[in-house]
Amino acid sequence: MVVAERAPYVPPAALNNQWNATSMDDYAEAISYDPNGNILTYNRKGAPEVGKPVSMDELTYNYDLNKNRLNYINDNITSTYTEDIETQNNNNHTYDAIGNLKSDFTAGVTNITWSVYGKITNITKGTNSISYTYDAEGNRITKSADGITTIYVRDGSGKVQSVYVKPAGSGLQQSEVHLYGSNRIGIIDGASAVPPTRNLENGYGTATISTFIRNEKTFELSNHLGNVLATVGDKKIQNSTDNSSVEYFTADVRTASDYYPYGMLMPGRSYAPVNSYRYGFNSKEQDPEVKGAGNQYDYGFRIYDPRIGKFLSVDPLAKSFP
Fold it and tell me: What is the dihedral of CA 252, 255, 256, 259, to 10 degrees?
């Protein structure tokens, strides 16, 4: 059994500036497992402060007979949350002979095509198709979805250095340059602009004119698990709404996210505009075009659904650890 709880936030003024340490049920979870480690039940709370009931999910996982393959999920709560899992029909999840997910009908996914190396090459969702290609090491190098092809440029270790996009009927555009310390710390947006050049006199060659522009960098604020909790820009925002003689600035917060233990976004505790930061839980890249923002992640070896705590395929290293 795994249980996660938190104490709710109450404005200090409502408590006469005293901290209320009483634990509440909002955002709590209770999970049970079978002897093989498969999730059997998954109870998940939301938060009353977003104007909805606390109870969000009471899930029961149903597996294929004598197999560790999830067949469908039953939810005992009909809630008004748009983020939660609702009751699925029998055979909602189907698989190929080696355990790769072939369909998730509730998510609108009618067919998933896999390569012989255990990589998704195509997803059929309604009348739309999402396709992927990979390099010899199994790293994703292109993704084509919604009429846009995304191209990943990687270094020798597989880290993404730059991202290009090619909308249908348009040219190639550089959209991101990634910034690293020991790990990725952020990205530079709008890096497609080519700096102007000028010819130097007396035959000294050509010089590139350098212009420093703010608001193109986005930095990650992550915890020890690699979860991207917030992103901030490289500009500061002056606060001029008070009468204080002290000049101060606030950060340009671009996204903010809190996660349940298995990685699902907490309702009412996330802020992410459209086309916002692509990385989230465990610093992994989201694939929002499949199941919506924050509902599917590319882990490299496998694809992950944080709402149900399940990967879409068998661990490729499983055969090495019988």
Answer: -160
- pTM of this structure: 0.84
Residue 171: is it exposed, middle or buried by C-beta count within 10 angstroms (0-12/13-18/19+)? exposed
Tell me the C-alpha distance between 297 and 304, whole Å.
5
Rounded Cα distance, 7 and 248, in Å: 31
Whole-angstrom distance, CA of residue 218 vs CA of residue 234? 7
CA distances from 72 to 59, 67, 80, 93, 259 (A): 10, 13, 21, 6, 24
Q: What is the pLDDT along the chain (322 residues), one digit of tens a residue?
A: 344 445 454 555 555 666 666 667 789 999 999 999 999 999 999 987 666 788 999 999 999 998 999 999 999 998 778 888 999 999 999 999 999 999 999 999 999 999 999 999 999 999 999 999 999 999 999 999 999 999 999 999 999 999 999 998 889 999 999 999 999 999 998 654 445 555 566 666 665 555 556 668 999 999 999 999 999 998 877 776 666 677 777 888 999 999 999 999 999 888 887 668 999 999 999 999 999 999 999 999 999 999 999 999 999 888 888 6
Residues 103 and 120 sit within 8 Å (Cβ to Cβ): no
Task: For the chain, give every domain's residue range.
Answer: 1-88
Written as six digits, the tokens of 251 are: 């950060």
Copy the structure tokens of residue 161: 């250095």
